[in-house]
Every structure is written in C-alpha cells, then in structure tokens.
Amino acid sequence: MAERNQHLCPCGSGKRMKQCCRTPVKAGKIALEAEARRLSESGQHAAACESLERRAALSPNNPMIWNDLGNQYAAAGQLDKAIAALNRALQADPNYPVPLYNLGVHTLARCAELRTSGAATAETEELAWEAIGYLNTSLAKDPDNAACHQSLVTAYGLVNQPGNARTHMVEALRLAPPSAPLPTRLLKKVTRLFS
Hints:
Number of domains: 2
Shape: globular
Oligomer: single chain
Structural class: mainly alpha
Order of helices and strands: HHHHHHHHHH
Largest sheet: none
C-alpha cells in the first residue's frame, strides 16, 4: 500500500501522477508555485517574486500567476512592478475580477504613500479616482467582495464622497458582519464620520 502512494502527484490533488501532472513541465510549474508560496509565507517576498517570474515565463497567459506576482511585488515594496504585473493579468483575462481588486488596493496604497510624503492633493485625488475605477469594475464582476467594498470606503473618503463611502460601508458590513460587536467608541467615530 505504501508503495502505491509513492506514485501520487506532488501537486497534492491525491491523484496518481499519470492521471494528473504527468509532464515534467507541469510538475516544474507546480514546484515553482509551491516554492513561491513557501518563500512568501516565510516573508521572503523578493525571492518569491523570482520564482513567480520563472513561473510566469512558462505560462505567460495565466492571469492567476500574474496576479500572484503582482501581490508579491507589492509585498516586497515594488508597487510599480506590482501594478505592471496586475495589468498583465488583465491582458490575459479581462474578465478576471481579482487583479482589478488588487489594482485598486495597490493604487490606494500608492495614494497613501504620496499623501504621507506631502504630494499635491490633486495628484493623490487622481490616484484615488483611479483606484475607485478599478474597484468598481471589480465589483461589477464580483459584487459580493466585502473587502472591495471596504477599500471603496477608504477611496471615497479620500475624495470627500461620504455618501458613497457610507453606501459601501453598509454593504461591506452586510457581506461580512463583524464577529464581535464593535466597541462603542469605534461606533461613535464611524457614525460621526459618515453623518
């Protein structure tokens, strides 16, 4: 019995190698993805990027790989490369909502960096509107993404649109209610912010 299990596919599917990842190329792709995941979990995002770059070269039309690469670039502090990889994911599959969401989130992160560094309000507002565009397009494809609604709360707050921020806050709470009641102080702050 133990000898039989040695022929299981390393991808973790539980299938025999012949029925799953029988080609060395596919097995190599799986190994690169596993390596990137391991490196990412240990906080080695730059090394994870290298693995995912090699993986993307093997499947340049796979939007999931480009999306993962974009997130790793962002985790490594390389927002420009992150946004380029996420745009590549959209080129591969324009209907895939995840890179749109991630583009919105990373564009908001860039906006926050610029605000912190004292950039002009017009520049940060332009980035916030760009993020809003990505996030709303993602929601059109995946309307039940609570995290996307939460990001839109932040984005609409940056462009002084409290009505839109309130709408997305309500929707985010409907989709993912807090597991514990919100502290009274926090509730009062949120209520003041959106009233």
